[in-house]
Amino acid sequence: MSLLDRIIRRQLILVMGKGGVGKSILAAVLAHSLAARGRRTLLLEVDPRENLHQLLDVAPSGGEIVEVGDGLHLQNLKPRRVVDWIVDRQLKLGLLVRRVLDSPIYHRFVEGAPGLLQLAILGHALRLVRGDLPRAPTIETVILDAPATGHGIYLLTAPGLVRDAIEHGPVASLAGEVADFVGDAGKTGLCVVTQAEEMPVQEALELRQGLSDKIGRSPELLVVNGLYPPSPAAGPEDELSALWRRRRRVNEVELERLQRQWDGPRVDLPLLPIDDGPRLVRALMERFEDGLRSGGW
Question: Alpha-carbon distance 196 to 250, whole Å?
Fold first, then answer.
């Protein structure tokens, strides 16, 4: 089975890495790739600033599930709404539900309870692929544009923390199910995105170690994004050419570092002179799939 085939079979794929390295672009590329192969896919965003709709050229989600194209959907998730939904489902009585949801104590609990909002994010993904959400489209894979490095690790460990802290009730039950779900390498995949520069590479290496230490997992794939193309061997040495050569040399040093220190498949994506949007996503998707077919470096 090829690397691409293995990735396609996952029900949840977390795209992780340092902020600013192109996680959102790679998440959009991956979602488009799966949908193009007939996998009914939802691209899930938890950043309240809502950026992914611009890459896909659709209206902002506003918390709803938005259809992007055949087999592809987008949602900007509000985790508080998921917790509110659990309360509503359990209490059932409208007046009592409203009193709880309006209570300052409840608000402080939701915002301060360790792991609760993170559990809500992953629990939402699990319900989507199970088909447990009323009026939601059929979804086979959720691509999660995960929070930056340290928060991404906490996202994965949160269900276990909640399960250990709460022994009974619906939240405890959900935490146990979600912990099993994200711990199953056959159902949940991890993709790390970096750039070939010193700090992003260091964070990617630390992220891999943190995942190994905290959840006993290694990422299935590393994507190195935004590589400068090789500079011409000859040509005028103006300021722009000199900058190009310096940046490419930095890339080459860090690629060699990854070659020594990162075990596992790697796909390299170039820096392209294309503005953020669907055209950039399509161009990178071709290169991404080529890298997956070859099994990575």
Answer: 7
Are 292 and 3 spatial neighbours (Cβ–Cβ below 8 Å)? yes
**DSSP per position, 37-57:** TT--EEEEE--TT--HHHHHT
Superfamily of domain 3-293 in the CATH hierarchy: P-loop containing nucleotide triphosphate hydrolases (3.40.50.300)
- What is the mean pLDDT for each group of 10 consecutive residues in the chain (297 residues)? 80 93 95 94 90 90 90 87 60 51 57 72 92 90 87 87 78 86 92 96 94 90 94 72 88 96 93 93 94 71
Looking at residue 211, its amino acid is: L
H-type alpha helices, 144-197: 149-165, 170-183
Cβ contact 253:195 at 8 Å: no
Domain ranges of the chain: 3-293
Edge to edge, what strands does the sheet with 65-69 contain? Answer: 65-69, 72-76, 41-45, 141-145, 12-17, 188-195, 221-227, 266-270
What is the rounded CA–CA span in Å between residue 50 and residue 62?
Answer: 8
Nearest residue to 13 (alpha-carbon basis) of 151, 130, 129, 136? 129
> Residue 209 burial by CB count (10 A; 0-12/13-18/19+): exposed, middle or buried?
exposed
Question: CA 53: distance to chain centroid?
Answer: 15
Q: What is the pLDDT of residue 236?
A: 67
Global pTM reads 0.88
- 215 near 189, Cβ under 8 Å? no
Listed in order, strand segments (DSSP E) in 23-146 are 41-45, 65-69, 72-76, 141-145
- What backbone torsions phi and psi does residue 103 show, to the nearest 5 degrees? -75, 130
Task: Using the structure block, give the residue that is written with the tokens 């915002």.
Answer: 111
Amino acid letter, 112: G
Q: What gap in Å lies between CA 188 and CA 180, rounded to an integer? A: 10
How far apart are alpha carbons 28 and 6 in whole angstroms?
18
